[in-house]
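TOKENISE THE FOLD
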Amino acid sequence: MDYLLHILILINIYIILASSLNLIAGYTGLLSICQAAFYGVGAYTAALMSLKVGSPFVVNLLLAMVVTGVLGALVGIPSLRIRDDYFVIATFAFQVIAFSIMTNWMAFTGGPMGLPGIPQPKIFWWVVDSNWETFLVSTVLAAGVLAVCLRLVHSPFGRVLMAIREDETFALAAGKNIAAYKVLVFIIGAAMASVAGVIYAHYISFIDPTSFTVMESIFIISIVIIGGAGSFWGPVVGAIVLVTLPEALRFIGMPSSIAANMRQILYGGLLVAFMMLRPQGLMGKYAFGKGGTNK
């Protein structure tokens, strides 16, 4: 049962991460390769606040969202001047910088040794000290993130985001403040990703930089692409598929040394197959990327 709950908690974490990226890449058309950096900043913020200050879970969560939101604005600002491949490179650079800071700032992040002993989350008088309770908290937070996404994409704000994705010049000609919308969607997406980081830090009780690499960002992108970019249910379906599918390798007798490599091959093969045969993903209506058309 604990194993099943562990998988369900991970699915909730990746639903949050994929939903946050879906706002940026799926609805706005700004492909970002630094979502794992926001994820990591949220985790480190929560961990440091718990270890150094002893602050409660809710405070850690709010502070992590504020910190990552500021960083999200810094990443979103380059999108005002650079586009497409150049913007992707800029987000990749931010991911590399964030990972380097996590690895080398020994006095603050613990470097490669990480931060052990992160206490269990405490919500007011309730100490979340079991997998059932962690699953409940992660489910509530994932549902909250999905509710915010649903509200945003069905609002005038969401319609402007989709207009930017389809034809930025037209949206600008329609009198929309494109710069403000781009920066704001990065702030929201980064803050959402930090929620997953806070859950992860308190759940695992240990974090180190290897959990927030560029490969993690690519995995989050894979969830969005396979689930369906620009689709509300895409991140949910993508997270369920990509988190549970590799676990099947455990039940076919494959050695663990081979299973790790097979997992990467499986992800890569699925990405290639979907981009060639169904670029809109399982639940999406549009091909991934800016200006996608119905297939």
